Amino acid sequence: MSTRLVINEQRKRCTPGVHDTRKSLAWRKDRNEVHGKMKANEPDFMRGLQERLSAYQDSLTNKSQYQDVSGLWSMYRKEFGVEYDISREQLVFKTDIRSYGVNRLISDRRIDAYLRIEEVTSRAIRMISEKTRRCIRRINSVLCFGSLNTPLNLDCPRNIKRELLPEASAIKAEYARIFGRLGWYYSHNSFKSFYYYYRMIELIGEIEGRPRVLEIGSGACNFAMILMSECSECEYVCVDLPDVIPAGFLSITQNLSDEELEVFLPHEIESYTASQSKKKLVFITPDQINSLGERFTLVVNHESFAEMPINVVNKYLETVKAIGSPGMLIYLVNRFSRQTDRHGGKYSTYTFFEKYDLNGFRVIHKEVDRFRAAFKGSEVQENCMYLGELDRERIDGSRGMHDIRVKSHIHVEDAR
């Protein structure tokens, strides 16, 4: 059973316990609404999603709890809960999911005004107490958004959006095109995902064929939604903690309108494998990563390896080397160093990028991530952006063409 995102005004109502021959639950959305906003608040549809999430939770009952979790994510995982609101008959997030979600409410014009005010006032209040600083920010929020609080993460001393989107630039035009088509506005995390997608395309060229993508730590799936919206065909696998998956699932059902895409939960992995859809996405838990029997052409991890103990990071890297296609690309953006457990302050709780086991990958490009570097005054938190290619000599099996081709003019930085 899957969630299919297709346009069909006469969609068949979902009756509990009754499924079609493909065991598929259809989700129909009307693109005639402003920005492609969906009719996903229909009670029967939302109850169908709730039943599927309940079935997923039941499937975890007989599994031992995932143990390879850092101190950070022992806390963070609690912030990705999803619940069914009986009064509204809708699935809702229990919290703001750490501001990782998509913004479909507050326009870029209002956000630009907020960021301009924030940039000016932050210079004057850096020496003022944190309490006073929070008060000024709340006043700014009321002036620009009409409310004291917003789920957007705009807590930055500089206007990163303006800094990375120069006027009349190609990246600004691409941002307007992609966000306009998706019906999104600026938010910190979705803009970060856009920037990482845009930078990747600058490095590898257009994605061709039918890529098979593995994203480790997909969170609210902003990067996945952007990439899949740009592909005519794609197979996408999102690996995350069992507690986080419902939030990613709900985020996709709320924020992506696609005529072809089918979405599956971990307990529906057999249906995912059998699906003949041109575009399909499945969520899996870490213990399922070897169960798909797929050869991936692209592996992605953005900022979550740095939140894992180094032995867990290298366990993932060992696995992806084994399941990658010849010439598979790996795209990492992670802190040069980060503490994974804030209690105790021990050196052993730090994960360093330099200790990632990237043997077997040829370096295509490596740089300091401009997005994270734009946080002036936070240089210790800068990211390393790494693009590598799996060495074909180390891969068994076919040496045929892979689905993602690298531009021939890319400068190869041989750091090995």
Kindly describe this structure:
- The protein has 416 residues and is an alpha/beta fold.
- It has a domain at 108-163.
- The chain is 32% helix and 19% strand.
- It has helices spanning 43-59, 71-76, 108-125, 130-145, 160-164, 170-182, 188-204, 222-229, 245-255, 269-274, 310-323, 370-373, and strands at 3-6, 25-28, 82-85, 90-93, 212-216, 234-239, 261-264, 279-284, 296-302, 324-335, 337-339, 350-352, 361-368, 383-390.
- Helix 3 (108-125) runs antiparallel to helix 4 and helix 7 crosses helix 8.
Q: β content, as a range?
A: 15-25%
Oligomer, anyone?
single chain
Number of strands: 14
Rg, please? 21 Å
Indicate the structural class: alpha/beta
Task: Please outline the helices and strands.
Layout lengths: L2 E4 L18 E4 L14 H17 L11 H6 L5 E4 L4 E4 L14 H18 L4 H16 L14 H5 L5 H13 L5 H17 L7 E5 L5 H8 L4 E6 L5 H11 L5 E4 L4 H6 L4 E6 L11 E7 L7 H14 E12 L1 E3 L10 E3 L8 E8 L1 H4 L9 E8 L26
Parallel strand pairs: 1-2, 5-6, 5-9, 6-8, 7-8, 9-10
Antiparallel strand pairs: 1-7, 3-4, 10-14, 11-12, 13-14
Helix pairs in contact: 3-4, 7-8
